[in-house]
Amino acid sequence: DPMSGTLPHFLQEPDDAYIVKSNPIKLRCRARPALQIFFKCNGEWVHQNQHTSLEHTELGTGLKIREVMINVSRQQVEDFHGPEDYWCLCVAWSHLGTSKSRKATVRIAYLRKNFEQEPQGMEVPINGMIVLHCRPPEGVPAAEVEWLKNEELVSSLEDLNIDTRADHNLIINEARLSDSGNYTCLASNIVARRRSATATVIVFVNGGWSSWTDWSECNVRCGRGVQKRTRTCTNPAPLNGGAFCEGMSVQKSTCTSPCPVDGGWAEWTMWSVCSSECERQRTRECTDPEPKHGGRLCDGAALDTDNCTGDLCIQADMESSNDVALYSGLAAGLVTVVVLIIAVTLYRRNQSEYGVDVIDSSALTGGFQSFSFKSARQGEQKQQVQIDPSALMTHAIITVFARQNCGGGTLGGRGKSQLAPIQPALVSSMMTGKRPLRTSGVFGHGGGRLVVPNAGVCLMHAVERLKNALSDEGQEILLSPEVTYGPPGLTLSCPVALTVAHCADVSSEDWNIKLKRQTQDNSWEDVMTVEEESTSCYCLLDTQCCHLLVERPGCYALVGEALTQAAGKRLRLAAFGNMEPNFLNYSIRVYCVDDMPHAFQEVVSVERSRGGRLLEEPKTLLFRANSFNLQVSIQDIPQFLWSIKPFTTCQEFSFSQVWCSSQSPLQCAFSLERYSPAANQLSCKISVRQVKGHEQILQNEKDTVPFFTQSDCTITSQTGSRAFKIPLSIRQRICATFDTANAKGKDWQLLAQKLHIDRNLGYFACQTSPSAVILSLWEAQHQERGDLDSLASALEEIGKVQSKHSTSVDTLDRISKTIPSSNSTMNRSSEELDANHT
């Protein structure tokens, strides 16, 4: 057979193999024609008895086909220490010669536990590229890598946006929100399967502003106001921790609406010629000025008629009847005069029975002095508003004495008193924690006076009620104490001025601040925003307080909603310390309360009872609405003199605790222990800071621990006759001058402009005496400074503006010269000032 004379041809050569654990592997060779086949491993022949041979004759050719197998154990491979891997090949013989197969390597398979590089979590903006790196553990054979997302296999074949071919890395070309998840690198070979640590991928969306809305209408009907437009951070809205939109969500712009001008009558025309009916006529027109912008029409008649013959042009037959009417009228007039004389006599006798002459006193003091009326007859009572004693702890009790002279503006005249309207009262919101602050004083102006006797006003700081109501709304927070004046149902003829302290940082337009009032069912209703203009209430916002003009008794408070993360409120910080009873430990307590006057009164009371001393004057910290917490830490403690427990040097208040003031006041404590009683010096610092925000340092640098200086925390305020106010006579002359209309409109508008109270003029236009209300609001603004110089300067400027009207100039010049300087008003009562300038 010619085929038997060929060299052996391998039909199957040995393959590379891996030994898994301790299981041996089989190597196979098959060749034709082959007389013998032997394995050669690592250059040495394998013993014949280690071979397993099979032989058969191929049908059709008759050639012999031989197949040989050997086993290779793990021990054989481990015992081989050659320069290369363990290898084996086959050698086949035929009649013509020999043939060699390829070398097959035998290796021990393994896969180490630790990844050479694990994927790391990342935050990626939407449409950004995500690259997760993975280098699998070392292994034989090399491990194959797969990716899992949330325990499900990631396939690049199903999603063309995903590529897993690049060096085991996972690449997502354009991140989508759906690509957020937990990713795991999975490495495996024939030995084992390994999982990497999970990498969390967050695809976030930065906020984008929507388009601006149209400008709103001007919020006033009269004068200078504000219009605004808004936008929202919804295009798109921030998601998955994306940044909030930068910039303002509200834009405001000033606007001006023409004020209503009430009509005024022009001069009467000349009388017409006497008619045949013995009458003459004259007319006038409502043109001085004409009513504009919704102003009122002129009151009265435009046509006037008169008998032009002195009532002599009458029929002769009626003369006798007219004579009878004439005598009857004279008799009726005589009777009326007699009745008036008797009434006046009885009235004077009744007035003389009072122990105090009301008119003389009120005329000299300007209506600010309280009176004790003593009745000469048993059973007669004071003229005052009756008050339920049970309301003392929940309402401001106001006793009203209202008498003034009716002598046409003169200050003299005994026995000419009558009930008069109450002028605006000045009430300050001096709060003290949860305890009511009682004060005494006399508030009011002009002929009427609003008397606040001792313990007669109780302004509550019942914060928890409103805080609980605001907690349901979620965005508004309390910015002021709750201020209550009453009793309910009290009716005054003019507004009451309330000065309410607040803790908001109003230097920028980051707040939406509202005035709220408590209803009868103890819920809270919106009265107005501080920038809104209304005819029922007036708000004037200063840096640390808000001046209100309100007409309804009740409970009021300021709340605010932060429009941006830059909105902030002021916090007052203070640190107290004292030696503990064992004389080894020293305790330092740090308090944080909203920055409003007298907010530390409760804290000071508690500290005095436990012997605490104020370490340093309280300081102010601006706390932003950026969701970051407040940290309090103690630093620079002398190491060899004092010790502090581990992990207590830094304490933290959550953002919601501070921002919403859920705990009042916030307090944290540090306890220091001295190594020896001889260590009597302690110098340290206390840092109070908002994370990524402002910081304040409270220092303790005293030679002897138990003794620290303590600032005076008592409440000081001028009330009663010492309270700052415009002398009565000057007030009356100002009101008489500016409440009078002229051709240019109401002069009180110019007064408001020069006193910088020139917004919401529509409110003053609805008052009986706009000038009186403006002056009351100005007094409320200047209670702390008590400076009348600025009022005098404003009147001088108005005099220059009105220089064309000589009468006004003379009047204003005389008024401004009679106003006392600020130095002359110090420590002088209203009675003294008014008596000197009446």
UniProtKB/TrEMBL annotation:
SUPFAM superfamilies: DEATH domain, Immunoglobulin, TSP-1 type 1 repeat. Gene3D superfamilies: 2.60.220.30, Death Domain, Fas (1.10.533.10), Immunoglobulins (2.60.40.10), Thrombospondin type-1 (TSP1) repeat (2.20.100.10). It is found in: Cell membrane. Residues 816-838 are annotated as: Disordered. GO terms for molecular function: netrin receptor activity. Its main location: membrane. Keywords: Cell membrane, Developmental protein, Disulfide bond, Glycoprotein, Immunoglobulin domain, Membrane, Receptor, Repeat, Signal, Transmembrane, Transmembrane helix. It is a single-pass type I membrane protein. Pfam families: Death, I-set, TSP_1, Unc5_NetrinR_N, UPA, ZU5. SMART domains: DEATH, IG, IGc2, TSP1, ZU5. Belongs to the unc-5 family. Receptor for netrin required for axon guidance. Mediates axon repulsion of neuronal growth cones in the developing nervous system upon ligand binding. This is Netrin receptor UNC5. It comes from Cyprinus carpio (Common carp).
